[in-house]
Amino acid sequence: MPHSDLSFMHPFFLGAYAENDHVFEKTLLEFLRDHAYWRRNFHPENRPPIPTNAPYREDYNEFLAQMQQELHTLSADLKKSVPFFSPRYMGHMAADLLLPGVLAQIMTILYNPNNVSDDAAPATLAKELEVGTQLARMFGYNTDPSEEPCAWGHLTSGGTVANYEGIWNLRSVRFYPLSLAQAVKDLGIKLPDVGPKNQQLDQYSKWELFNLSIRDTILLMRKVTAHVKEEYEKKQFQAFSEAVIKESVAHLGMAGFFLRHPEIKQPKLVIPQSAHYSWEKAMKILGMGTAHIEKIRTDVHMRMEISHLKEVIEEHYQQQIPVLGMIGVLGSTEFGSVDPIHKMVEVRDEYAAKGFYFGIHVDAAWGGYMTSLFRLPDGGFVPHEDVCKEFKYFPHKGTWQAFKAVSEADSITIDPHKLGYLPFPCGAFVSKDSGVLDFISQKAAYVFDVKEDPLKKPAAKKLLGLGQYIMEGSKPGSAAAAAYVTHRCIPLHNEGFGRIMAHSMRACEYFYDKLMDVRRHLKELVTITIPFTPDTNLVCFAINPKGNPHLALLNHFSRKVFQHMKINPQQPLQAHDFFGSFTSLSKDALTDEDAARIFEELGINGDTFCHHVTDRTRESDHIYLIRHTLMNPWLMYEDNGMNYIDRYCAFLFRAIKTEMGRAIGRG
Amino acid sequence: MPHSDLSFMHPFFLGAYAENDHVFEKTLLEFLRDHAYWRRNFHPENRPPIPTNAPYREDYNEFLAQMQQELHTLSADLKKSVPFFSPRYMGHMAADLLLPGVLAQIMTILYNPNNVSDDAAPATLAKELEVGTQLARMFGYNTDPSEEPCAWGHLTSGGTVANYEGIWNLRSVRFYPLSLAQAVKDLGIKLPDVGPKNQQLDQYSKWELFNLSIRDTILLMRKVTAHVKEEYEKKQFQAFSEAVIKESVAHLGMAGFFLRHPEIKQPKLVIPQSAHYSWEKAMKILGMGTAHIEKIRTDVHMRMEISHLKEVIEEHYQQQIPVLGMIGVLGSTEFGSVDPIHKMVEVRDEYAAKGFYFGIHVDAAWGGYMTSLFRLPDGGFVPHEDVCKEFKYFPHKGTWQAFKAVSEADSITIDPHKLGYLPFPCGAFVSKDSGVLDFISQKAAYVFDVKEDPLKKPAAKKLLGLGQYIMEGSKPGSAAAAAYVTHRCIPLHNEGFGRIMAHSMRACEYFYDKLMDVRRHLKELVTITIPFTPDTNLVCFAINPKGNPHLALLNHFSRKVFQHMKINPQQPLQAHDFFGSFTSLSKDALTDEDAARIFEELGINGDTFCHHVTDRTRESDHIYLIRHTLMNPWLMYEDNGMNYIDRYCAFLFRAIKTEMGRAIGRG
Question: N or C end of chain A, less CB within 10 A?
Answer without folding.
Answer: C
